[in-house]
Amino acid sequence: MSTYIEMTNLSETSMCINGKAEREYQGGAKFQNGDTLLARITPCLENGKTAFVNTLKTNEVAAGSTEFIVMRAKNNVSSYWVYCLAKDEDFRNYAISSMIGSSGRQRVHEKYLEDYKLPSISMEKMEKFDFVAKPIFETIRLKSLENQKLSELKDLLLSKLATVGE
């Protein structure tokens, strides 16, 4: 059994993954903490479904929808910078412009994204970005976990209240 993330677990307004399932690996995208999941299919990409993976166990490899493009930082590039790139309007418009397929089921051609011209950034600036971004991303992760726990607690309390009146 392994962690599996569905497209429905990605938000259009948050970088956090909301929920997960445990199941046998049956194919799909594989990813780990620090990766960015970018929706490749219409309308999910246009609507902004993108997530930063940061809720897995150490060294855990999870799986997800075949409709994810997994973006991974390489060569001293900050994983936080990769997520910000995936949310950048110019990058997203570039990805959307590459969609192929029938109406309503169009997908980004992954190889096309490899041709995207990245801005030149010095190693020093990348390190500074990473240093500043890391605590922000960690705070977002902790607040998301707190919100999930509070939602679970609310559901539990409401179910208890419903049975008290019977």
Describe what this molecule looks like in 3D.
The chain has 166 residues and is of the alpha+beta class. The protein has a single domain, classed as Adenine-n6-DNA-methyltransferase TaqI, Chain A, domain 2 (Alpha-Beta Complex). 39% of the residues lie in helices and 14% in strands. The strands form two sheets. The protein has a four-stranded mixed beta sheet with strand order 2-1-6-3, with no helix packed on it. The protein is globular. It starts with a strand and ends with a helix.
Q: What tags apply to this protein structure?
A:
single chain, 166 residues, Adenine-n6-DNA-methyltransferase TaqI, Chain A, domain 2, four-stranded mixed β-sheet, globular
State the fourth-level CATH superfamily: DNA methylase specificity domains
Second-tier CATH architecture? Alpha-Beta Complex
Looking across the biggest beta sheet, what order are the strands in?
2-1-6-3
Q: How many domains would you count in the coordinates?
A: 1
**Name of the CATH class:** Alpha Beta
Low-confidence stretches: none
Structural class given helices, strands, pairing? alpha+beta
Summarize model confidence as the mean pLDDT: 92
The number of helical runs is 4
Strand content: 5-15%
Give, in order, the helices and strands: EEEEEEEHHHH
Percentage of residues in helical conformation: 25-40%
